[in-house]
């Protein structure tokens, strides 16, 4: 149960899935469950993990009940203010529009959840870029930092792990026309790749804006600006072409050889330690 994870101080973990009805990321956090008039405390962590891996067409969606109650979040929350702005191209407005459906439980009594790979494969949109997590105030990252903590924060490190591969498809190497499934698979991975690149850029930009915004707070006058470091771990960072090619050939699957698992885990540790951003962060802590 999530209550076991929340019962004592520890790392704050966000598990993401996707609501195919709205197309939006659904994060297993209390801020998200608020709009279902529900508590995440008694929800099984295993169900959340299954939802995050429920690839459409292969696994069945995970169902979550949307209660027909008049809870506070449906009466007085940031969603109503976001909708009033009519800023239809803002992320806050689009997320609020999706959450509005939850507020009318008759429109969606059961929420079906699937793997979030297409919309948020890196898990960034459902965490540091999420209006839901930050109560509609992504600029201040309200869900991660209390206002008084913004006056004391000095250094922040963000690490984004992108395990996207760039292996050539078999039909491409053979010079033949792809079949239906091969075409769908290629389109799926292309969409994920494009979304990953865009997400990293947006996240880095948003994180920079947040650090600048916090540094300019009047209550921080006389203090040094927030030292932000944004590290991206990807196979592209592997220097050796042969080794890079070998990792790109590891398939995306729910079952890997033990040796492949060990190699990927060791690589993650190595790429982090070799990251200039991580090295600067650690050096400035000395």
Structure, explained:
With 286 residues, this protein is of the alpha+beta class. It has 2 domains: 2-120, no CATH class; 145-283, no CATH class. It has 12 helices and 6 strands. The protein has helices spanning 2-6, 30-33, 45-52, 72-75, 78-85, 91-103, 117-120, 170-173, 180-215, 241-248, 258-274, 276-283, and strands spanning 16-19, 24-27, 62-65, 110-113, 155-162, 227-234. A hairpin with a 4-residue loop joins strand 1 and strand 2. The radius of gyration is 21 Å and the shape is globular. It starts with a helix and ends with a helix. The mean pLDDT is 87.
Oligomer class = single chain
Q: Cα distance, first to last residue?
A: 38 Å
The counted number of beta strands is 6
- Uncertain segments are none
Radius of gyration: 21 Å
Order of helices and strands: HEEHHEHHHEHEHHEHHH
Strand order of the largest sheet: 1-2
Which band does the percent of strand residues land in? 5-15%
Largest sheet: 2 strands, antiparallel
- Mean pLDDT over the residues: 87
Structural class: alpha+beta
What coarse outline follows from CA principal-axis ratios? Answer: globular
Number of domains: 2
- Helicity range of the residues? 40-55%
**Total of helices:** 12
Question: How do you describe this structure in short?
Answer:
The chain has 286 residues and is of the alpha+beta class.
């Amino acid at each position: 149960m999530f209550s076991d994870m929340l019962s004592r101080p520890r790392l704050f973990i966000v598990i993401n899935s996707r609501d195919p009805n709205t197309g939006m990321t659904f994060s297993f956090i209390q801020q998200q469950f608020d709009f279902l008039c529900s508590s995440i405390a008694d929800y099984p962590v295993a169900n959340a993990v299954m939802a995050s891996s429920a690839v459409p067409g292969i696994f069945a969606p995970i169902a979550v009940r949307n209660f027909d109650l008049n809870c506070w979040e449906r009466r007085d929350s940031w969603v109503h203010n976001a909708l009033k702005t009519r800023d239809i191209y803002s992320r806050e407005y689009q997320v609020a529009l999706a959450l509005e459906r939850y507020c009318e439980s008759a429109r969606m009594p059961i929420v079906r959840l699937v793997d979030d790979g297409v919309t948020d494969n890196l898990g960034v949109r459902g965490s540091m870029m999420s209006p839901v997590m930050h109560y509609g105030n992504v600029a201040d990252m309200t869900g991660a930092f209390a206002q008084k903590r913004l006056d004391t924060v000095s250094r922040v490190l963000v690490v984004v792990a992108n395990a996207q591969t760039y292996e050539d498809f078999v039909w491409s190497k053979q010079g033949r026309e792809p079949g239906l499934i091969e075409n769908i698979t290629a389109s799926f991975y292309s969409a994920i790749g494009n979304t990953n690149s865009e997400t990293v850029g947006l996240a880095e930009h948003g994180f920079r804006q947040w650090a600048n915004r916090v540094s300019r707070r009047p209550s921080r006058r006389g203090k040094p600006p927030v030292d932000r470091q944004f590290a991206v771990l990807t196979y592209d960072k592997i220097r050796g072409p042969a080794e890079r090619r070998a990792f790109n050939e590891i398939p995306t699957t729910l079952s890997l050889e033990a040796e492949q698992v060990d190699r990927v885990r060791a690589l993650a540790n190595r790429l982090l330690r070799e990251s200039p951003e991580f090295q600067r962060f650690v050096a400035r802590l000395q």
